[in-house]
Structures are given as C-alpha cells and as structure tokens.
Amino acid sequence: MRELPILYTPRLILRAPCLDDLDALALAMQDEETCRYIGGCQPRAMVWRALMSLIGAWHATGVSMFSVLRRDSGEWIGRIGPWQPEAWPGPEVGWTLVRSSWGQGYAQEAAQACMDYVVDVLGWQQIIHTIDPGNIPSQKLAQRLGSRCLGPGRLPPPHQLAPVEIWGQSAEEWRARRAAG
User: What's the 3-state SS for the chain?
Assistant: First the structure.
C-alpha cells in the first residue's frame, strides 16, 4: 500500500479520494452546470465507479486526482489534480469544483498546489489540461496558471467524440513563472 500524499494550501486540504466522498461527488455530478463540459450528468452508480477508479489509480500508479476540502469546514468541494489514464493525450492537471465554490479562487489555489506537486514530486516535464472549447472559465484558469492553448486534441474512448483543446506548459515554464512570483 502506498502512502498517499496530502497537500495543504492556505484555505484547502487536498487528499486522496475516499468512499466518504461519494455523497458529495454524486451530488456534484448531478448538477447540469457543473457537468456541462465534462460529459454531462452521471447517475450515482457511475459516480461510484468513477470514484473507485480515482481511488484505485492512487494505489496502482501513485497518480490520481485529489479530493478538495475546505480547511475551515471540512466541506468537500471538488476534485483536482494529476490524471493520466491509459491513452490520455498527456499528463494532466484537471479540475472539477462544485458550483457553490466557483468564483472564490479555490480552483486556482488548488491547481497551483497540484502543479507544484506534479513538477516537484512526480517529476513531470509537461503538464496539460484538456478543456472543452466552450469552457471559458477553465480556459481562463489555465491562462492564470501560465498555460496556453496548444491546439485541438482527442480523448480516448468513450470520450473520443467530445471536442477538446489541449492547454499546457512545460515544467521549466512552470518553475520560471513560480520564481517570478
């Protein structure tokens, strides 16, 4: 069994997902606006399988998304972090936060911690974000992280027909941006 990382930011805790996250994740995956650009709403049974994939990926590969919790309340507000399934277009830092947490800077705070983690701990040399071309808020977050649109991409089945742009940057670019403060 691997020791699973926990990241702390001023307002957030990022930890490996667990079964206790199911209720909050299932609620998030029923919100049409939250799911608009990530394949649409999912029934609870599919959310359970997706959660088990996240948990299993941590143990099998050492790479998976974190559950994001508010430090002040312990409330689960989303998932964010490293993601690299079989046939994915590259090593990704991705994000999905519940709608009630949008516009508060949580996504950027958590994404920055994850970018540091994948560069400093995992040693990734390139980091991508797969973003639906219509998802302007995610594009703006990618830009705030220093990423740029690298062009259209393709996800593996069953998502191969979903429109996606690949945004990204190199570890060297991330380090330079971080050093510039």
Answer: CCCCCEEECCCEEEECCCHHHHHHHHHHCCCHHHHCCCCCCCCHHHHHHHHHHHHHHHHHHCCCCEEEEECCCCCEEEEEEEECCCCCCCCEEEEEECHHHCCCCHHHHHHHHHHHHHHHCCCCCEEEEEECCCCHHHHHHHHHCCCEEEEEECCCCCCCCCCEEEEEEEHHHHHHHHHHC
Q: Specify the length of the chain in residues.
A: 181
What lies within 8 Å, CB to CB, of 95 at 6+ separation is 78, 79, 80, 81, 107, 110, 111, 138, 141
Return the CA Rg of the chain.
Answer: 15
**Mean per-residue pLDDT pooled into runs of 10, the chain (181 residues):** 90 97 94 83 92 95 96 97 94 96 96 98 97 96 97 93 95 94 79
Residue 15's CB is within 10 A of a number of other CB atoms, namely 17
